[in-house]
Write a structure and sequence with these properties.
With 310 residues, this protein is an all-alpha fold. The chain folds into 3 domains: 1-33, no CATH class; 36-225, no CATH class; 231-306, no CATH class. It has 15 helices and 2 strands. The protein has helices at 13-32, 37-42, 45-54, 57-68, 74-79, 106-125, 130-141, 159-168, 170-174, 182-192, 199-225, 231-250, 257-260, 266-270, 274-306, and strands at residues 2-3, 6-7. A two-stranded antiparallel sheet has the order 1-2. α12 packs parallel to α15 (274-306). The longest helix has 33 residues, at 274-306.
């Protein structure tokens, strides 16, 4: 069997699949601007492959969708006809997959701080070289804020790896694409402290941890999307509450007697769920329109009776 004019000496399905699909995938990433030609040569592809195979199936699918940007964010919900607005539920800005970890809403910032603190603790548990840890954390902060690296704090020994990771980019880092230059540096640190841990395993787990940060940011986004903290829902609540106040302010005079009882307690209505408040407001508005229309019809009828010549 030949793949790309190269005879394959073994029929490993995983290996054959990578030989067939990976070149086309890399070409697509370059064409879409996801991964530049310079970045491609810097990425530890074997490490990323090992990391992806170690992730749960659901997280593998999630990572695949987010790497290409085709996921349930506002941008694609509008394209799919599911929403009329591409606004982020946390801050109200335009939302695509790149916005999710970069959202500056208070809840998103708090989750990002929690994730990066946990990641920093994980680096310590894995006996990561101090200079490597500092460099990676500085690069990670570039995901949410414009890079303002304190270059004097970056050790000269890790400088080439630092620059290689910058070529890959902050989004690439968050998607688990680490520079191959980190591995020999970590091996040197393990040798220095006489640690016999596996550097390839350290790198694979590092990639998984970075992917998990993006996933946790998505989970936090998803929790807001389906809660009352959603920007769009808050706007809906505000508009519906304004309508409810308007109905109470107009009073019960132009409503049928059986409907007037619905205006007995303003606070009780305002405490209802959004869907219940919308139904309440819809019913009141309809009843008020019907009652007014009925009264106008009666007045026209009376004018016809008492003023037939007009």
């Amino acid at each position: 069997m030949y793949v790309a004019d190269t005879k394959q000496s073994r029929l490993d399905p995983q290996f054959i699949q990578e030989c067939v699909t990976l070149p086309a995938l890399r070409s697509r990433w370059r064409d879409k601007g996801t991964i530049s030609a310079e970045a491609e040569s810097e990425i530890a592809w074997d490490t990323l492959g090992r990391a992806m195979r170690s992730l749960p199936a659901g997280l593998q699918r999630w990572s695949t969708k987010h790497c290409v940007g085709m996921c349930g964010t506002g941008k694609f919900k509008v394209l799919w006809g599911l929403e009329t607005s591409a606004a982020c539920p946390r801050c109200g800005d335009f939302e695509d997959h790149l916005h999710v970890p970069r959202c500056r809403a208070a809840s998103a910032t708090a989750e990002w701080d929690r994730c990066t603190a946990a990641f920093s603790a994980w680096l310590d548990l894995q006996l990561t070289g101090p200079s490597i840890k500092l460099a990676i954390l500085q690069l990670l902060q570039g995901v949410c804020t414009p890079p303002s690296f304190a270059l004097r704090t970056i050790s000269s020994s890790v400088w080439p790896a630092f620059l290689a990771q910058k070529v890959i980019g902050s989004q690439g880092l968050l998607e688990g694409r680490i520079a191959s230059s980190w591995l020999p540096l970590q091996q040197q640190h393990y040798d220095k402290i006489r640690c016999r841990r596996s550097v390839p395993l350290w790198a694979s787990r590092l990639s998984q941890q970075l992917i998990s940060i993006g996933f946790y940011m998505w989970e936090q986004w998803n929790s807001v999307q389906h809660s009352d903290d959603n920007v769009q829902l808050r706007e809906c609540h505000s508009a519906v509450n304004e309508g409810i106040h308007s109905q109470f302010d107009m009073g019960p005079d132009d409503l049928p007697k059986e409907i007037q009882l619905m205006l007995t307690c303003r606070c009780r209505v305002l405490r209802k769920l959004l869907v219940d408040k919308e139904e309440w407001l819809k019913l009141l508005c309809q009843e008020r329109r019907d009652f007014r229309r009925s009264m106008k019809a009666q007045r026209r009828s009376l004018r016809t009776i008492f003023s037939p010549g007009l």
